[in-house]
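[recover] target loaded
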Protein backbone atom coordinates (compact mmCIF):
# COMPACT_ATOMS: atom_id res chain seq x y z
CA UNK A 1 0.00 0.00 0.00
CA UNK A 2 1.31 3.45 -0.94
CA UNK A 3 0.48 6.09 1.67
CA UNK A 4 0.91 9.86 1.48
CA UNK A 5 0.25 12.03 4.53
CA UNK A 6 0.34 15.78 5.13
CA UNK A 7 1.58 17.22 8.44
CA UNK A 8 2.00 20.67 9.91
CA UNK A 9 5.15 21.69 11.76
CA UNK A 10 3.60 20.63 15.09
CA UNK A 11 3.14 17.07 13.84
CA UNK A 12 -0.62 17.17 13.35
CA UNK A 13 -1.77 14.86 10.56
CA UNK A 14 -3.89 17.00 8.22
CA UNK A 15 -4.72 14.57 5.43
CA UNK A 16 -3.82 11.12 4.16
CA UNK A 17 -4.41 9.04 1.04
CA UNK A 18 -3.82 5.33 0.38
CA UNK A 19 -3.32 3.72 -3.01
CA UNK A 20 -2.88 0.04 -3.89
CA UNK A 21 0.70 -0.96 -4.57
CA UNK A 22 0.50 -4.36 -6.20
CA UNK A 23 2.94 -7.02 -5.04
CA UNK A 24 3.84 -9.66 -7.61
CA UNK A 25 4.71 -13.29 -6.80
CA UNK A 26 6.26 -14.66 -10.02
CA UNK A 27 7.44 -17.87 -8.33
CA UNK A 28 7.68 -19.46 -4.91
CA UNK A 29 9.75 -17.29 -2.60
CA UNK A 30 9.75 -14.36 -5.03
CA UNK A 31 8.25 -10.99 -4.03
CA UNK A 32 8.46 -8.18 -6.58
CA UNK A 33 7.07 -4.71 -7.20
CA UNK A 34 6.68 -2.64 -10.35
CA UNK A 35 8.78 0.48 -9.59
CA UNK A 36 7.04 2.70 -12.11
CA UNK A 37 3.57 1.64 -10.97
CA UNK A 38 4.67 2.45 -7.41
CA UNK A 39 5.74 5.92 -8.52
CA UNK A 40 2.45 6.52 -10.34
CA UNK A 41 0.49 5.47 -7.24
CA UNK A 42 2.59 7.83 -5.14
CA UNK A 43 2.09 10.73 -7.55
CA UNK A 44 -1.67 10.16 -7.61
CA UNK A 45 -1.81 10.01 -3.81
CA UNK A 46 0.17 13.27 -3.48
CA UNK A 47 -2.22 15.01 -5.87
CA UNK A 48 -5.21 13.61 -3.99
CA UNK A 49 -3.90 14.81 -0.60
CA UNK A 50 -3.35 18.32 -1.95
CA UNK A 51 -6.84 18.44 -3.45
CA UNK A 52 -8.71 16.89 -0.53
CA UNK A 53 -6.98 19.04 2.07
CA UNK A 54 -7.38 22.24 0.07
CA UNK A 55 -3.65 22.85 0.39
CA UNK A 56 -2.00 25.12 -2.16
CA UNK A 57 1.23 23.67 -3.59
CA UNK A 58 3.04 26.81 -2.46
CA UNK A 59 2.21 25.91 1.17
CA UNK A 60 4.26 22.69 1.06
CA UNK A 61 7.58 23.29 2.83
CA UNK A 62 9.10 19.93 1.88
CA UNK A 63 8.27 16.50 0.53
CA UNK A 64 10.25 13.59 1.95
CA UNK A 65 9.97 9.91 0.96
CA UNK A 66 10.16 6.81 3.10
CA UNK A 67 9.85 3.18 2.09
CA UNK A 68 10.52 -0.38 3.11
CA UNK A 69 14.09 -1.26 3.96
CA UNK A 70 16.25 -3.85 2.17
CA UNK A 71 14.98 -5.38 -1.08
CA UNK A 72 16.48 -3.75 -4.17
CA UNK A 73 15.64 -1.30 -6.97
CA UNK A 74 17.90 -1.18 -10.04
CA UNK A 75 18.08 1.57 -12.66
CA UNK A 76 20.24 2.22 -15.71
CA UNK A 77 22.23 5.36 -16.48
CA UNK A 78 19.07 7.16 -17.58
CA UNK A 79 17.24 6.30 -14.35
CA UNK A 80 15.02 3.66 -15.97
CA UNK A 81 14.19 0.47 -14.08
CA UNK A 82 16.00 -2.55 -15.49
CA UNK A 83 13.73 -5.15 -13.86
CA UNK A 84 10.95 -5.38 -11.26
CA UNK A 85 12.14 -4.46 -7.77
CA UNK A 86 12.80 -7.05 -5.07
CA UNK A 87 10.65 -6.77 -1.94
CA UNK A 88 12.08 -7.27 1.53
CA UNK A 89 10.06 -10.50 1.90
CA UNK A 90 11.78 -12.04 -1.15
CA UNK A 91 13.54 -15.26 -0.13
CA UNK A 92 15.12 -16.55 -3.32
CA UNK A 93 18.59 -15.76 -1.91
CA UNK A 94 18.31 -18.49 0.75
CA UNK A 95 20.51 -20.98 -1.19
CA UNK A 96 23.13 -18.25 -1.61
CA UNK A 97 23.13 -17.59 2.14
CA UNK A 98 23.38 -21.32 2.85
CA UNK A 99 26.42 -21.46 0.56
CA UNK A 100 27.94 -18.45 2.34
CA UNK A 101 27.35 -20.17 5.68
CA UNK A 102 29.06 -23.37 4.50
CA UNK A 103 32.07 -21.50 3.14
CA UNK A 104 32.48 -19.07 6.05
CA UNK A 105 31.49 -15.97 4.09
CA UNK A 106 28.77 -14.98 6.57
CA UNK A 107 31.33 -15.09 9.39
CA UNK A 108 33.37 -12.55 7.47
CA UNK A 109 30.44 -10.33 6.47
CA UNK A 110 28.37 -10.04 9.65
CA UNK A 111 30.98 -8.32 11.87
CA UNK A 112 31.58 -5.78 9.11
CA UNK A 113 27.90 -4.84 8.78
CA UNK A 114 26.92 -5.31 12.48
CA UNK A 115 23.89 -7.45 11.66
CA UNK A 116 22.79 -10.82 10.34
CA UNK A 117 22.75 -11.85 6.71
CA UNK A 118 19.13 -12.62 5.81
CA UNK A 119 17.17 -13.44 2.67
CA UNK A 120 15.51 -10.08 1.93
CA UNK A 121 18.71 -8.15 2.58
CA UNK A 122 20.00 -6.22 -0.42
CA UNK A 123 23.50 -7.68 -0.13
CA UNK A 124 22.14 -11.24 -0.26
CA UNK A 125 19.91 -10.35 -3.22
CA UNK A 126 22.99 -9.12 -5.08
CA UNK A 127 24.54 -12.54 -4.46
CA UNK A 128 21.50 -14.14 -6.10
CA UNK A 129 21.58 -11.73 -9.05
CA UNK A 130 25.25 -12.40 -9.68
CA UNK A 131 24.51 -16.12 -10.00
CA UNK A 132 21.19 -16.04 -11.83
CA UNK A 133 20.82 -12.67 -13.60
CA UNK A 134 24.30 -11.35 -14.40
CA UNK A 135 22.81 -9.53 -17.37
CA UNK A 136 20.62 -7.51 -14.98
CA UNK A 137 23.65 -6.41 -12.98
CA UNK A 138 25.46 -5.55 -16.20
CA UNK A 139 22.57 -3.29 -17.25
CA UNK A 140 22.36 -1.63 -13.81
CA UNK A 141 24.10 1.68 -13.21
CA UNK A 142 22.63 2.51 -9.79
CA UNK A 143 21.54 0.23 -6.93
CA UNK A 144 18.78 1.94 -4.95
CA UNK A 145 16.38 1.29 -2.09
CA UNK A 146 12.63 1.96 -2.14
CA UNK A 147 12.58 5.54 -0.86
CA UNK A 148 15.63 6.40 -2.96
CA UNK A 149 13.79 5.35 -6.12
CA UNK A 150 10.85 7.61 -5.19
CA UNK A 151 13.23 10.50 -4.56
CA UNK A 152 14.87 9.89 -7.94
CA UNK A 153 11.45 10.30 -9.56
CA UNK A 154 10.69 13.40 -7.48
CA UNK A 155 13.88 15.35 -8.12
CA UNK A 156 16.45 13.32 -10.05
CA UNK A 157 18.68 12.78 -7.02
CA UNK A 158 20.65 9.55 -6.76
CA UNK A 159 21.75 8.95 -3.17
CA UNK A 160 20.81 7.04 -0.05
CA UNK A 161 20.97 7.76 3.67
CA UNK A 162 22.77 5.95 6.51
CA UNK A 163 19.63 4.11 7.66
CA UNK A 164 18.85 2.52 4.29
CA UNK A 165 22.51 1.76 3.58
CA UNK A 166 22.72 0.02 6.95
CA UNK A 167 19.49 -1.94 6.56
CA UNK A 168 20.62 -3.11 3.11
CA UNK A 169 23.68 -4.77 4.64
CA UNK A 170 25.87 -2.46 2.59
CA UNK A 171 27.43 -0.29 5.31
CA UNK A 172 29.97 -0.18 8.09
CA UNK A 173 27.52 1.61 10.37
CA UNK A 174 30.16 3.02 12.72
CA UNK A 175 32.25 4.45 9.89
CA UNK A 176 29.20 5.77 8.03
CA UNK A 177 30.61 4.37 4.78
CA UNK A 178 30.19 1.31 2.61
CA UNK A 179 31.63 -1.93 4.00
CA UNK A 180 33.69 -2.66 0.91
CA UNK A 181 35.39 -5.61 2.66
CA UNK A 182 31.97 -7.27 2.96
CA UNK A 183 31.40 -6.93 -0.79
CA UNK A 184 34.85 -8.40 -1.45
CA UNK A 185 34.20 -11.30 0.94
CA UNK A 186 30.97 -12.08 -0.94
CA UNK A 187 32.64 -11.78 -4.34
CA UNK A 188 30.52 -8.72 -5.12
CA UNK A 189 33.24 -6.09 -5.49
CA UNK A 190 31.97 -5.37 -9.01
CA UNK A 191 28.82 -3.87 -7.43
CA UNK A 192 30.67 -1.25 -5.38
CA UNK A 193 30.78 1.36 -8.20
CA UNK A 194 26.99 1.01 -8.57
CA UNK A 195 26.29 2.10 -4.98
CA UNK A 196 24.80 5.59 -4.49
CA UNK A 197 26.49 8.21 -2.28
CA UNK A 198 25.50 8.08 1.41
CA UNK A 199 24.33 11.49 2.67
CA UNK A 200 22.48 12.78 5.77
CA UNK A 201 18.86 11.74 6.35
CA UNK A 202 17.91 15.25 7.46
CA UNK A 203 19.25 17.17 4.46
CA UNK A 204 17.66 18.58 1.31
CA UNK A 205 18.56 16.18 -1.50
CA UNK A 206 17.08 18.16 -4.38
CA UNK A 207 14.01 19.99 -5.59
CA UNK A 208 10.84 18.80 -7.28
CA UNK A 209 11.42 18.61 -11.03
CA UNK A 210 9.07 19.99 -13.67
CA UNK A 211 8.07 16.46 -14.67
CA UNK A 212 7.33 15.43 -11.07
CA UNK A 213 5.41 18.67 -10.52
CA UNK A 214 3.13 17.83 -13.43
CA UNK A 215 2.55 14.31 -12.08
CA UNK A 216 1.93 15.26 -8.45
CA UNK A 217 0.57 18.80 -8.38
CA UNK A 218 3.52 19.89 -6.24
CA UNK A 219 5.23 23.17 -7.03
CA UNK A 220 8.35 22.83 -9.13
CA UNK A 221 11.34 23.62 -6.93
CA UNK A 222 9.78 22.36 -3.67
CA UNK A 223 12.58 20.98 -1.44
CA UNK A 224 12.88 17.19 -1.30
CA UNK A 225 14.28 15.72 1.93
CA UNK A 226 16.42 12.60 1.86
CA UNK A 227 14.52 10.73 4.57
CA UNK A 228 14.85 7.39 6.38
CA UNK A 229 13.53 3.91 5.76
CA UNK A 230 10.18 2.99 7.29
CA UNK A 231 11.27 1.20 10.47
CA UNK A 232 13.36 4.20 11.51
CA UNK A 233 10.54 6.55 10.49
CA UNK A 234 8.00 4.65 12.60
CA UNK A 235 10.38 4.48 15.54
CA UNK A 236 11.12 8.21 15.38
CA UNK A 237 7.42 9.08 15.11
CA UNK A 238 6.63 6.77 18.04
CA UNK A 239 8.84 8.91 20.25
CA UNK A 240 11.61 6.37 20.90
CA UNK A 241 14.63 8.43 21.93
CA UNK A 242 16.44 6.59 24.76
CA UNK A 243 17.88 3.16 25.53
CA UNK A 244 15.22 2.36 28.15
CA UNK A 245 12.46 2.44 25.50
CA UNK A 246 11.49 -0.55 23.36
CA UNK A 247 10.09 0.33 19.95
CA UNK A 248 7.55 -2.16 18.57
CA UNK A 249 6.26 -1.81 15.01
CA UNK A 250 3.55 -4.37 14.26
CA UNK A 251 2.94 -4.56 10.52
CA UNK A 252 4.19 -6.78 7.70
CA UNK A 253 7.06 -7.74 9.99
CA UNK A 254 7.34 -8.12 13.74
CA UNK A 255 9.80 -5.27 14.26
CA UNK A 256 11.26 -4.83 17.72
CA UNK A 257 14.02 -2.29 18.33
CA UNK A 258 16.23 -0.85 21.04
CA UNK A 259 18.72 2.03 21.10
CA UNK A 260 22.42 1.70 21.92
CA UNK A 261 25.41 4.02 22.35
CA UNK A 262 27.59 1.60 20.37
CA UNK A 263 26.48 -1.12 17.95
CA UNK A 264 24.85 -4.12 19.61
CA UNK A 265 26.91 -7.24 18.84
CA UNK A 266 25.43 -9.82 21.24
CA UNK A 267 22.68 -10.61 20.43
CA UNK A 268 23.40 -10.20 16.73
CA UNK A 269 20.41 -8.20 15.43
CA UNK A 270 18.55 -8.81 12.18
CA UNK A 271 19.08 -5.15 11.32
CA UNK A 272 21.20 -2.39 12.80
CA UNK A 273 21.47 1.20 11.59
CA UNK A 274 22.59 4.64 12.76
CA UNK A 275 19.66 6.46 14.38
CA UNK A 276 19.26 10.12 13.40
CA UNK A 277 18.65 11.20 17.00
CA UNK A 278 21.05 11.53 19.95
CA UNK A 279 23.95 9.75 18.13
CA UNK A 280 22.52 6.30 18.84
CA UNK A 281 22.25 3.00 16.95
CA UNK A 282 18.96 1.19 16.39
CA UNK A 283 19.19 -2.60 16.79
CA UNK A 284 16.21 -4.53 15.42
CA UNK A 285 14.95 -8.10 15.46
CA UNK A 286 12.50 -8.58 12.59
CA UNK A 287 10.49 -11.62 11.48
CA UNK A 288 7.45 -11.84 9.12
CA UNK A 289 5.16 -12.92 11.97
CA UNK A 290 3.14 -9.83 12.78
CA UNK A 291 -0.14 -8.15 11.82
CA UNK A 292 0.13 -9.14 8.15
CA UNK A 293 -1.03 -12.56 9.39
CA UNK A 294 -4.31 -10.99 10.52
CA UNK A 295 -4.62 -9.23 7.17
CA UNK A 296 -4.20 -12.58 5.39
CA UNK A 297 -6.70 -14.21 7.75
CA UNK A 298 -9.32 -11.54 7.10
CA UNK A 299 -8.85 -11.50 3.32
CA UNK A 300 -8.78 -15.27 3.00
CA UNK A 301 -11.39 -16.41 5.52
CA UNK A 302 -13.53 -13.45 6.54
CA UNK A 303 -14.68 -12.01 3.23
CA UNK A 304 -18.37 -12.17 4.17
CA UNK A 305 -17.71 -10.61 7.58
CA UNK A 306 -15.71 -7.83 5.92
CA UNK A 307 -18.55 -7.13 3.49
CA UNK A 308 -21.06 -6.89 6.34
CA UNK A 309 -18.72 -4.56 8.22
CA UNK A 310 -18.36 -2.27 5.19
CA UNK A 311 -22.13 -2.13 4.92
CA UNK A 312 -22.22 -0.75 8.45
CA UNK A 313 -19.44 1.75 7.82
CA UNK A 314 -16.89 -0.24 9.81
CA UNK A 315 -13.68 -2.10 9.02
CA UNK A 316 -13.18 -5.82 9.50
CA UNK A 317 -10.36 -4.99 11.92
CA UNK A 318 -12.78 -3.13 14.21
CA UNK A 319 -15.05 -6.17 14.13
CA UNK A 320 -12.11 -8.43 15.03
CA UNK A 321 -11.21 -6.21 17.98
CA UNK A 322 -14.80 -6.34 19.24
CA UNK A 323 -14.82 -10.14 18.97
CA UNK A 324 -11.58 -10.41 20.93
CA UNK A 325 -12.92 -8.09 23.64
CA UNK A 326 -15.87 -10.43 24.16
CA UNK A 327 -13.67 -13.52 24.42
CA UNK A 328 -11.06 -12.38 26.95
CA UNK A 329 -12.93 -13.64 30.02
CA UNK A 330 -13.47 -17.12 28.56
CA UNK A 331 -11.00 -20.01 28.92
CA UNK A 332 -8.25 -20.00 26.28
CA UNK A 333 -8.58 -23.05 24.02
CA UNK A 334 -6.48 -22.23 20.97
CA UNK A 335 -2.98 -21.25 19.94
CA UNK A 336 -2.17 -19.53 16.67
CA UNK A 337 1.31 -19.68 15.15
CA UNK A 338 1.60 -16.61 12.87
CA UNK A 339 3.81 -18.14 10.21
CA UNK A 340 1.72 -17.46 7.08
CA UNK A 341 4.76 -15.71 5.57
CA UNK A 342 7.29 -18.11 7.07
CA UNK A 343 8.24 -19.18 10.56
CA UNK A 344 11.35 -20.60 12.24
CA UNK A 345 13.12 -23.04 9.89
CA UNK A 346 10.32 -22.55 7.37
CA UNK A 347 7.50 -23.58 9.73
CA UNK A 348 3.97 -22.95 8.35
CA UNK A 349 1.17 -21.19 10.18
CA UNK A 350 -1.11 -23.23 12.39
CA UNK A 351 -4.20 -22.94 14.58
CA UNK A 352 -4.29 -25.59 17.29
CA UNK A 353 -6.84 -26.48 19.94
CA UNK A 354 -10.19 -25.84 18.25
CA UNK A 355 -13.19 -27.72 19.63
CA UNK A 356 -16.89 -27.83 18.84
CA UNK A 357 -17.54 -25.06 21.36
CA UNK A 358 -14.99 -22.70 19.79
CA UNK A 359 -16.38 -19.67 18.00
CA UNK A 360 -15.03 -16.94 15.76
CA UNK A 361 -14.28 -14.76 18.79
CA UNK A 362 -12.03 -17.49 20.21
CA UNK A 363 -10.25 -17.85 16.87
CA UNK A 364 -9.63 -14.11 16.64
CA UNK A 365 -8.34 -14.03 20.21
CA UNK A 366 -5.86 -16.78 19.30
CA UNK A 367 -4.73 -14.79 16.25
CA UNK A 368 -4.27 -11.57 18.26
CA UNK A 369 -2.41 -13.37 21.05
CA UNK A 370 -0.32 -15.50 18.69
CA UNK A 371 1.00 -12.39 16.95
CA UNK A 372 1.80 -10.83 20.34
CA UNK A 373 3.60 -14.02 21.40
CA UNK A 374 5.68 -13.96 18.20
CA UNK A 375 6.71 -10.38 19.04
CA UNK A 376 7.58 -11.43 22.58
CA UNK A 377 9.77 -14.28 21.29
CA UNK A 378 11.70 -11.78 19.16
CA UNK A 379 11.91 -9.34 22.08
CA UNK A 380 13.21 -12.08 24.40
CA UNK A 381 16.04 -12.64 21.94
CA UNK A 382 16.73 -8.92 21.55
CA UNK A 383 16.92 -8.44 25.33
CA UNK A 384 18.79 -11.66 26.02
CA UNK A 385 22.45 -10.80 25.40
CA UNK A 386 25.17 -8.85 27.21
CA UNK A 387 24.69 -5.86 24.88
CA UNK A 388 20.92 -5.72 25.40
CA UNK A 389 19.28 -2.44 26.42
CA UNK A 390 17.75 -1.83 29.89
CA UNK A 391 14.16 -1.56 28.67
CA UNK A 392 11.53 -0.10 31.02
CA UNK A 393 8.70 0.93 28.66
CA UNK A 394 7.28 0.29 25.20
CA UNK A 395 6.25 2.52 22.29
CA UNK A 396 3.86 0.73 19.91
CA UNK A 397 3.01 1.62 16.30
CA UNK A 398 1.45 -0.22 13.37
CA UNK A 399 -2.03 -1.65 12.90
CA UNK A 400 -2.45 -3.11 16.42
CA UNK A 401 -1.79 0.32 17.95
CA UNK A 402 -5.14 1.45 16.51
CA UNK A 403 -6.95 -1.23 18.54
CA UNK A 404 -7.15 -0.49 22.29
CA UNK A 405 -7.83 -4.15 23.09
CA UNK A 406 -4.87 -5.41 21.04
CA UNK A 407 -2.60 -2.69 22.47
CA UNK A 408 -3.56 -3.82 25.97
CA UNK A 409 -2.73 -7.43 25.11
CA UNK A 410 0.74 -6.27 24.00
CA UNK A 411 1.08 -4.34 27.26
CA UNK A 412 -0.07 -7.23 29.46
CA UNK A 413 2.03 -9.84 27.62
CA UNK A 414 5.21 -7.76 27.87
CA UNK A 415 4.48 -6.62 31.43
CA UNK A 416 5.66 -3.08 30.69
CA UNK A 417 3.96 0.33 30.47
CA UNK A 418 3.05 1.00 26.85
CA UNK A 419 2.42 4.29 25.04
CA UNK A 420 1.10 5.19 21.60
CA UNK A 421 1.96 8.50 19.97
CA UNK A 422 -0.44 10.79 18.15
CA UNK A 423 -1.17 10.17 14.49
CA UNK A 424 -1.80 7.14 12.34
CA UNK A 425 0.84 7.13 9.58
CA UNK A 426 4.03 6.82 11.58
CA UNK A 427 6.41 6.03 8.73
CA UNK A 428 5.24 9.09 6.83
CA UNK A 429 5.49 11.22 9.95
CA UNK A 430 9.08 10.14 10.55
CA UNK A 431 9.86 11.20 6.99
CA UNK A 432 8.09 14.53 7.58
CA UNK A 433 10.23 15.08 10.68
CA UNK A 434 13.34 14.66 8.51
CA UNK A 435 11.91 17.17 6.02
CA UNK A 436 11.14 19.64 8.80
CA UNK A 437 14.76 19.55 9.95
CA UNK A 438 16.13 19.62 6.39
CA UNK A 439 14.28 22.84 5.58
CA UNK A 440 14.90 24.55 8.92
CA UNK A 441 11.37 24.39 10.30
CA UNK A 442 13.06 22.75 13.29
CA UNK A 443 16.78 23.17 14.03
CA UNK A 444 17.46 19.50 14.77
CA UNK A 445 15.77 16.14 15.23
CA UNK A 446 15.65 16.54 19.02
CA UNK A 447 13.51 19.66 18.58
CA UNK A 448 11.37 18.03 15.89
CA UNK A 449 10.73 15.07 18.20
CA UNK A 450 9.79 17.34 21.09
CA UNK A 451 7.51 19.57 18.99
CA UNK A 452 5.88 17.02 16.69
CA UNK A 453 5.20 14.02 18.96
CA UNK A 454 2.67 13.71 21.78
CA UNK A 455 1.41 10.65 23.65
CA UNK A 456 -2.15 9.90 22.56
CA UNK A 457 -2.85 6.82 24.67
CA UNK A 458 -1.19 4.97 27.54
CA UNK A 459 -1.62 1.41 28.79
CA UNK A 460 -0.60 -0.06 32.15
CA UNK A 461 -0.07 -3.83 32.52
CA UNK A 462 -2.67 -5.72 34.53
CA UNK A 463 -0.78 -8.09 36.90
CA UNK A 464 -3.36 -10.89 36.67
CA UNK A 465 -3.55 -10.76 32.88
CA UNK A 466 0.26 -10.57 32.67
CA UNK A 467 0.51 -13.77 34.71
CA UNK A 468 -2.12 -15.47 32.53
CA UNK A 469 -0.48 -14.38 29.28
CA UNK A 470 2.95 -15.33 30.58
CA UNK A 471 1.73 -18.90 31.18
CA UNK A 472 0.09 -18.96 27.75
CA UNK A 473 3.27 -17.64 26.11
CA UNK A 474 5.40 -20.35 27.70
CA UNK A 475 2.88 -22.96 26.52
CA UNK A 476 3.08 -21.41 23.03
CA UNK A 477 6.88 -21.78 23.09
CA UNK A 478 6.71 -25.39 24.33
CA UNK A 479 4.14 -26.44 21.74
CA UNK A 480 6.08 -24.62 19.01
CA UNK A 481 9.26 -26.48 19.97
CA UNK A 482 7.45 -29.84 19.81
CA UNK A 483 5.74 -28.98 16.53
CA UNK A 484 9.10 -28.10 14.98
CA UNK A 485 9.73 -31.82 14.39
CA UNK A 486 6.41 -32.15 12.57
CA UNK A 487 6.96 -28.99 10.52
CA UNK A 488 10.46 -30.16 9.59
CA UNK A 489 9.20 -33.53 8.24
CA UNK A 490 9.79 -33.33 4.48
CA UNK A 491 7.38 -36.19 3.68
CA UNK A 492 4.52 -34.81 1.54
CA UNK A 493 0.98 -35.81 2.48
CA UNK A 494 0.64 -37.60 -0.87
CA UNK A 495 3.43 -39.99 0.18
CA UNK A 496 1.75 -41.02 3.45
CA UNK A 497 1.21 -44.80 3.89
CA UNK A 498 -1.70 -46.26 1.95
CA UNK A 499 -3.39 -47.51 5.12
CA UNK A 500 -3.47 -43.96 6.50
CA UNK A 501 -5.00 -42.70 3.25
CA UNK A 502 -7.70 -45.37 3.43
CA UNK A 503 -8.42 -44.57 7.06
CA UNK A 504 -8.75 -40.85 6.29
CA UNK A 505 -11.08 -41.56 3.39
CA UNK A 506 -13.23 -43.77 5.58
CA UNK A 507 -13.34 -41.15 8.31
CA UNK A 508 -14.45 -38.42 5.91
CA UNK A 509 -17.20 -40.68 4.56
Amino acid sequence: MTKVALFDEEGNELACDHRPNRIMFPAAGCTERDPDAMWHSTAEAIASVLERSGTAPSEIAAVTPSGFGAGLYMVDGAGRSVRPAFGSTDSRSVPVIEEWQRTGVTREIEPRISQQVWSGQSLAILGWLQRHEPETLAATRHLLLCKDFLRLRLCGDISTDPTDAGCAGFADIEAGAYAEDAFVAAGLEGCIPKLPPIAPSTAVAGRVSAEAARATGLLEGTPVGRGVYDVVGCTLASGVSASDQLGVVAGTFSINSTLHRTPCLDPNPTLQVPYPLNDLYLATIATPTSASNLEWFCKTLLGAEAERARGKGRSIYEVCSDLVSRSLDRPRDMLFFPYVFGGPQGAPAGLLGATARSGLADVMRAVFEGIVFAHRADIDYLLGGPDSAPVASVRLSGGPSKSPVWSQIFCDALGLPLSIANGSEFGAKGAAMCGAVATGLHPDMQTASRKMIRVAREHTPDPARHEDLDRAYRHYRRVGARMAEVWADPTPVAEAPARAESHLAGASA
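[recover] notes: The chain has two domains: 2-227, 229-509.
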